Amino acid sequence: MNHFIDKVVIITDKSSGIGLATAQAFESEGAKVVVTGCNAETLASAAKVLSKETLTAEAEVTKSADIARLVNLVREKHGHTDLAIDARNVTQLGVCCSV
After folding, report:
1. Cβ proximity of 67 and 59 under 8 Å
2. Taking a C-beta distance cutoff of 8 angstroms, is the pair 15, 36 a contact?
3. pLDDT for 33-87, tens place per residue?
4. From its phi and psi, is residue 34 left (phi > 0), alpha (psi between -120 and 50) or beta?
5. Helix (H), strand (E) counts: the chain
6. Which architecture, in CATH terms, is 8-86?
7. How far is residue 32's CA from residue 53's CA, in Å, rounded to a whole number?
8. Rounded to two decimals, what is the model's pTM?
9. pLDDT band at 92 (very low <50, low <70, confident <90, very high)
10. Do the strands 83-86 and 32-37 form a parallel or antiparallel pair, or are they unpaired?
11. All structural domains of the chain with their residue ranges
């Protein structure tokens, strides 16, 4: 079933392992996926196995400039975000921006 058709999902800070598997699962359910990570090589590898529609972006969620760039990219491409998943362990929580 396609439970996430036309839903926009951002998966941050993990373009391998569980983050990549999560991206693939959302793709299979019809989501428009955006994957971020800090390593350009790992992102390039992820892009090879993900669908052509999936965006990959080098970004670090602890850096406000990277978050702003990511938000602008997603707004430009998709107009909104339905779900954001931080695929790594984060110890400090807070609202960084309104998407």
Report:
1. yes
2. yes
3. 999 998 899 999 999 999 999 999 999 888 999 999 999 999 999 999 999 988 7
4. beta
5. 3, 4
6. 3-Layer(aba) Sandwich (3.40)
7. 7
8. 0.82
9. very low
10. unpaired
11. 8-86
